[in-house]
Write a structure and sequence with these properties.
The protein is built from 8 helices and 2 strands. It has 209 residues and is mostly helical. β1 and β2 form a beta hairpin. α5 packs across α6 and α6 runs antiparallel to α7. It is flat and about 60 Å long. The two termini are 20 Å apart.
Length: 209
């Protein structure tokens, strides 16, 4: 988003970009103050240890409290992949649920979700669903990129850049979660793209897209 916004300022409003260079020292100042407060509160050693520990625990499969979720999700992925391979092309249907064992209590339960949205789509809608999802996103982002690059209206460009940035962030989150299958993330995602299409339709017409 920062790159697209900066490039658009250079293309459409070069004087504005030159003036906004003055904001760079302010941003560095805010970052330094935030770092200083963090070090003051946590201490230098504890802060670095906490950051390194959180990062390394994301890739570990040891049976500890911090890494238990990794082990659970790997077992979940194994079950979901096995079920998806039973019908890889058209999927098992939206009502399909995998059966998992609760690791702490050992109870058996049905689970409709998978902590990987792409795997969830493959499980329920197959390769056909994955292809449809990819084509839809590609068309959306391509339309937004076209508006961000060419449209003279700053509002349309800002809305397009926002939609592209939100989509990129969500696509990364979906690797380890099923955010578009819950109301919270999906509603915000829909609102952002709805705002993009509303702004473009009202100001420029559908033929511009």
């Amino acid at each position: 988003a920062t790159y697209l916004a900066w490039r658009n300022l250079g293309r459409f409003e070069p004087e504005q970009r030159a003036r906004r260079l003055l904001l760079v020292p302010s941003l560095f100042g805010i970052a330094l103050v935030t770092l200083g407060l963090s070090v003051f509160y946590f201490g230098t050693g504890d802060l670095i240890e906490s950051i390194v520990g959180r990062f390394t625990s994301s890739f570990s499969t040891q049976t500890t409290g911090e890494t238990m979720s990794n082990v659970i999700r790997l077992a979940e992925y194994d079950t979901a992949i096995g079920a998806a391979l039973q019908s890889p092309v058209i999927g098992n249907g939206l009502g399909y649920a995998i059966v998992t064992r609760e690791p702490i209590l050992g109870t058996i339960r049905e689970q409709w979700f998978v902590h990987n949205y792409y795997l969830l789509i493959w499980l329920k809608l197959g390769l056909v669903g994955l292809a449809a999802f990819g084509v839809l996103l590609w068309k959306q982002v391509r339309a937004a990129k076209r508006v961000a690059d060419r449209d003279p209206s700053w509002l349309a460009r800002a809305t397009a850049i926002t939609a592209i940035a939100v989509t990129a962030q969500v696509l990364v989150i979906l690797i380890t979660n099923y955010s578009l299958a819950d109301v919270t993330t999906a509603s915000v995602f829909a609102y952002v793209w709805g705002a993009f299409w509303a702004v473009c339709a009202d100001n420029f017409g559908e033929e511009r897209l």
